[in-house]
Amino acid sequence: MTSQMLCKARKYEEIAEKVIKKEERPAFHFSPRTGWMNDPNGFSYYKGKYHMFYQYYPYDTRWNSMHWGHAVSDDLLHWEYVPAALAPDENYDKEGCFSGSAIALPDGRQLLIYTGVARKAQEDGTDCEIQTQCIAVGDGTNYEKYENNPVLDEKHIPEGSSKVDFRDPKVWKKEDGSFACVVGNRPADGSGQILLYSSLDGFKWEFVSVLAENRNRFGKMWECPDFFELDGKYILLVSPQYMQGKGLEYHNGNGTVCFVGDLDKSTNTFKEESNHAIDYGIDFYAPQTVIAPDGRRIMIGWMQNWDTVGFYSPEKKWFGQMSLPREISVKNGRLYQWPIRELEELREEKVVYHDVTVEGTMKLEGIKGRKIDLELELSAGEDSYKKFMLQFAQNEEHYTSVCFWPQESLLEIDRKFSGASKDTVHERKCQVNSYNGKLEMRVILDQYSVEVFVNHGEQVLSATLYTDPAAEGITFLTEGKVKMNVIKYDLQE
Fold it and tell me: E strands of 105-204, at which residues?
């Protein structure tokens, strides 16, 4: 039975979306039906469709009482909104239905597992928020919350662990047909840890182990974990809060980490071998993955940064967008990411330049746009060069840039001149692999965002843009001579 709160949200979103024009949204990046959006939730494939649930407050473009929005897609690029799936309408989740995941049950229903937040009185007379894991079951459109919620609470966490920071379950089906999930938590030292749980049916859950421990190395609380096997390695994705930079890694405050390693199946503990940021840009958080019907593992993240969520226009009726869905693989101990191949089906109006020599400032006929797929290959000319800059989303006043210094093998994304309402987090640098000034980049622009894929997906830099979409100029600038190959495609909606 649909609650009054959920009915209200569904009626509101149906009316509110009608005032948002198609051209006011990204063309092929997911954005909320209306209002506020953050983490992707329940990213899944069910009944022949991809499902995207998301942290959602339909009534305003600011974070508030979390619902779950819902949309479906055939290709992960074009989405159909369906009614909101969850509202905070029970005692155990009345402060919010926080992040979680989804999976198909053997009987054909879809199970949602999420974090319910409620305030509870404590023994000392105070009250505080308590986080528990809850489930709802449905048919792909309507969902009923389980009568025995919550299914995981303080009785299921290690002694001394936080009841306040216990959230974001990610569920998967094991080879034997049983279920497992990981949940983010904080141990007694205030750091982060990932807890592993198992279930025979998806409804009754048991604690298995502390899968991984932060030990105050990478920020504090580890949010939004995902854990899976890929290309012979086990991958743990987490989004730590309060990160401190290490060299050119982990500078986003609330950032992302990919751990590559192995699973000790005798103890159910993860053995780390290497770590690195998932995204080296400004805006990327809380990624979640799904296995496509053809076996690809595809990742999507919230293309936003908690330090810059105040950059919104009050007249805009939506806030937040997801990254491009990315096909992921593991090579040489790193997570490689590449735009899903379905994006190539949107390409049209190909423009090609071979062996162009850039010295100083140059524009190229036909190289412009805000919905484009741009491939660049850089190399030194007769002599080495000191700097290459690509400016885009450009008009007479504003632009965003990607800058490469070959001698230091440094790449920077910079949007401080993009027209944001205040000067704050606008630049990020990362070390890239290059030799003799050679670098390959694929730059995807979509109205309000840019994603830069470096060296066939070895690294990615993502950022949201604040410049008027009519600003579509592109300029190349160098110190020294750069040889350049360019392929540009317009991307149709």
Answer: 110-121, 127-138, 143-145, 166-173, 179-185, 193-199
Write down the pLDDT at residue 300. Answer: 98
The model carries a pTM of 0.96
pLDDT of 342-357, one tens digit each? 999 999 999 999 999 9
Q: Kindly give the pairing relationship between strand 143-145 and strand 127-138.
A: antiparallel
What letter does residue 62 receive in the DSSP assignment? S
> 79 forms bridges with which residues in the sheet?
73
Residues with catalytic function: 39
In 179-268, beta strands by DSSP E: 179-185, 193-199, 205-213, 222-230, 233-240, 257-264
Helices (H), 69-178: none
Spatial distance between the Cα atoms of 284 and 254, rounded to a whole number of angstroms: 9
The pair of structure tokens assigned to 267 is 């103890």
**pLDDT tens digits, one per residue of 38-62:** 999 999 999 999 999 999 999 999 9
Other CB atoms within a 10 A radius of the CB of residue 353 amount to 14
Query: Residue 90 has which token pair?
Result: 């029970």
| CA–CA separation, 457 and 437 (whole Å) | 18
Rounded Cα distance, 222 and 238, in Å: 6
Instruction: Please report the pLDDT score of residue 125 as a whole number.
Output: 67
352 token code pair: 């090609």
Strand partners, 216: none
Give 315-319 contacts, CB < 8 A, sequence gap 24+: 316/24, 316/61, 317/16, 317/19, 317/20, 317/24, 317/34, 317/35, 317/61, 318/20, 318/25, 318/31, 318/32, 318/33, 318/34, 318/35, 318/37, 318/61, 319/32, 319/35, 319/36, 319/37, 319/61, 319/62
Specify the amino acid at residue 486: V
Q: How many CB atoms sit inside 10 A of residue 428's CB?
A: 22
C-beta pairs of 150-157 under 8 Å, 24+ apart in sequence: 150/92, 150/116, 151/113, 151/203, 151/204, 151/205, 152/183, 152/197, 152/205, 154/130, 156/197, 156/205, 156/206, 156/207, 157/185, 157/195, 157/207
